[in-house]
């Protein structure tokens, strides 16, 4: 398929790092090589990193987009449990074994795991080479591929090791969503619902209205949704690249979400855990008075329309979940901190402070009543 | 010992990152906690990372300088062969196990290995926490602690994995050099000789004149030498933080030096390998016409005065050494590139290009005739 209309969303990288653009358009998967060379001309040799599933689906096309130049595909086994320091090490060594120098670049082709893992490989390879993010899942398109966060998990928690390494470009082709299983499409919609919840209530409600088109992977519905979510995320990221302030609002649902995901041994997907996390954090916000009553219920309606879970699975013990809260990066000085909604479409803001301390009592109450 | 006069050398971090200062003065080892808190006020909990040798010598004093607050010492076994991803992983996990969040900071207390390793831990911990470099070897004081390079080795070569992570501060106390063995003092002088070779011929000759005072660890001689070297390095780094151009001149002696060091299985220390590398690269420069005749011989005289080797050890086969050149970061598009002297005190500059392609033939000639 040849590329049709392309929409570019600019992103400010911040911290003196180079700005970049997210390109959204059907058929763009076949332009990766051309775009990569244009945005990172110092990189003369490229590798494409993908998990084995995505590699089998799209690896050939992306490698071919480099026009016959040697752009090998490096794969690793699919799954969040492979987002580890050991895989990072193996991919790095595979690049070293090919004699790749500083004049090399990495294409991260895949979902959030690949983007984070391959991004961290690029961030640390010879102290940093360019990465082009080519997200192939909804969650990666609307969330993880934009913003420059890279990293891997450790046994103690998610993303505990990593680096800020903004991409040279992000290339989003909504047609690749058709090959995703329905459950993975639903999962990705959790981050889109989050963008609605923190920044645009109409957008959030619209996701519920177009639920079936989105869940079945209808390309135009996906394209519009992805574009709006990227606009929300790019706007937040551009105003605060290093998460010192505003960017924290993107963590809505993620403090409890990460703990639930880790407590489940990653039996819950990231999106499912964030969906439940958003509901619980909205309920918590209502309980402590930051959030308008009824907001959690409105979130529940949207999330259920896109077939996402909204309750803590009964087998996840509240005490175990709380144990994983302690390992979260968002803990400061031993104090739990979270972002709260003011209402659907807007976060609670105490004079430019977006993350707020919360006591253990209400957290336990909400976890137990869920 | 209480602190006496302190000299501050400012360093521009570049890339939008925060500038920092190198503080040089006798007795400063006891001010680390105070300085760390002042330069990184967001870090409320600190860890001190050192190898077991340096930890035993200075760990207590540095931890005590935090004035009774919990600033634990994390140690690892001494030696370049411990600058690995496995040690990085273990130190990271030790920090996670202590529940350290984003409001933490790292003191890197030790030589170049510790600075690189602990710096890389800080660079990647929760995507980056502040590091204060407290170099305790000459090579670390005059070279590795300034400039923001962090990283670890892989079996294929040195520093193949890492990050740019400028320190929040560098604290240099020349009195700690007294506890170094003479051979390690000599080793560190290799980088100081390099600063003379690339930027200040008088300084280079002065090192030879004051050789005995420097080798025996006389504090005032060390202090002056360290200060002048830091000035040279800070000047170069401040003009080019990301090694795209001028900073490459600091690699003089290092392309062949790294290959020799790796080929020796790290039997040669870094400084010894760089000493030989500088001589060979000066000879190579004379051979290909970039370097004034006799420059290599003048370098040899200075290096011999400070008891450093100037010839390839006969057991290191030239072909094996060349094999390690291929893995070096400074290779671009498969082409070997090196910085050459124009003469002692000045590098060869071809219109703002500092690293120059070199053919394999002359490299082999120089390696074989050494």
TrEMBL record, chains A, B:
It comes from the Bacteria. Binds 1 divalent metal cation per subunit. Can use either Co(2+) or Zn(2+). CDD domains: DHQS. Keywords: Amino-acid biosynthesis, Aromatic amino acid biosynthesis, Cobalt, Cytoplasm, Lyase, Metal-binding, NAD, Nucleotide-binding, Zinc. Coiled coil: none annotated. Zn(2+) binds at residues 191, 254, 270. Residues 188-331 form the 3-dehydroquinate synthase C-terminal domain. Its EC number is 4.2.3.4. It is an enzyme of class 4 (lyase). It is found in: Cytoplasm. InterPro entries: Dehydroquinate_synthase, DHQ_synth_AroB, DHQ_synth_fam, DHQS/DOIS_N, DHQS_C. One of its GO terms (molecular function) is 3-dehydroquinate synthase activity. It holds the Pfam family DHQS_C. It catalyses: 7-phospho-2-dehydro-3-deoxy-D-arabino-heptonate = 3-dehydroquinate + phosphate. Its cofactor is NAD(+); Co(2+); Zn(2+). Residues 75-184 form the 3-dehydroquinate synthase N-terminal domain. NAD(+) binds at residues 112-116, 136-137, 149, 158. Pathway: Metabolic intermediate biosynthesis; chorismate biosynthesis; chorismate from D-erythrose 4-phosphate and phosphoenolpyruvate: step 2/7. NCBIfam families: aroB. Catalyzes the conversion of 3-deoxy-D-arabino-heptulosonate 7-phosphate (DAHP) to dehydroquinate (DHQ). Belongs to the sugar phosphate cyclases superfamily. Dehydroquinate synthase family. This is 3-dehydroquinate synthase. It comes from Gaopeijia maritima.
